[in-house]
Amino acid sequence: MRKILAEGVFIILLIVLIIGVIEMPTEPSVDAPSYNEVVEHYIEEGANKTNASNLIAAILADYRAFDTLGETIVLFTSVVAVGSVLRSTKHDKELAKEAEEDE
Prior knowledge:
Blueprint: H1 2-22, H2 37-50, H3 55-63, H4 65-86, H5 90-102
Helix pairs in contact: 2-3
């Protein structure tokens, strides 16, 4: 029953993703949501208001600092999780030692 439920969820997500890809615009347009007054503000006043050395640094360091911090936290958490899974413990070493003695 769990396997059927998991396959059903997978198929639904696959259909949603396929529909999303099909509905994506094929050509750029100035009517797209990504072209709005925020982009114009970043380009016209971003480097001056933030005193950054260039526009990319202004956007990443000032306007998107919380987003960048969040990405860093997610990356750190994943590294810690992988490290904790791959770490060998004292108990593991004792079990390996007992296995060698049994042979």
